[in-house]
Amino acid sequence: MDRQPALCAAACDLIGTPFRLQGRDPATGLDCVGLVLASLRQVGVQPDLPADYRPRRRTIAIPDSALAAVGLHGATGVRRAGDILLLRTAPMQAHLAIALSGQDIVHAHAALRRVVRCPLPEDWAVLAAWRLADPQTGDPEWPR
């Protein structure tokens, strides 16, 4: 079962959800970490992060071991729908989003105060990406 499209659908279902700093519950609002966590929960992935986990100014330091434990692996090469992106939105600001087809992303937009779908801004650098691995084989590059 390819969970990447399901992750995209889960993120799209959250479009319009209010923005809330450190928000982890769609009923009360989400920030970028909350959007990713809520989307992952919808596809049966339960990352083990502290309740008060939040982005740091320069990075989002989620341990690789925590990501691998839930089937997320570093994604290289061509971006795929469902990839979780770590973005640099400003010199001192890291941000998470979920890639959709082409250049579109879903992310928690603080200025618009809600989760939105939009093109990935050209000036936002992609610092890292993660992809759900095949639950049967653990292969992060499937489908090929």
Describe the structure.
With 144 residues, the protein is an alpha+beta fold. It has one domain: Alpha-Beta Complex (endopeptidase fold (from Nostoc punctiforme)), CATH 3.90.1720. It is built from 3 helices and 8 strands, in the order H-E-E-H-H-E-E-E-E-E-E. A 6-stranded antiparallel sheet has the order 3-8-4-5-6-7. It has a two-stranded antiparallel sheet with strand order 1-2.
Order of helices and strands: HEEHHEEEEEE
Assigned CATH architecture: Alpha-Beta Complex
Strand order of the largest sheet: 3-8-4-5-6-7
Q: How many β-strands, per DSSP? A: 8
Quick rundown:
19% of the residues lie in helices and 28% in strands. The chain is α+β, with helices and mostly antiparallel strands and 144 residues long. It has a single domain, classed as endopeptidase domain like (from Nostoc punctiforme) (endopeptidase fold (from Nostoc punctiforme), Alpha-Beta Complex), CATH 3.90.1720.
Give keywords.
alpha+beta, 3 helices, 19% helix, 144 residues, two-stranded antiparallel sheet, endopeptidase fold (from Nostoc punctiforme)
What is the fold's blueprint, element by element?
Elements: H1 3-13, E1 24-25, E2 29-30, H2 32-42, H3 64-69, E3 72-74, E4 84-90, E5 93-99, E6 104-109, E7 114-119, E8 125-132
Antiparallel strand pairs: 1-2, 3-8, 4-5, 4-8, 5-6, 6-7
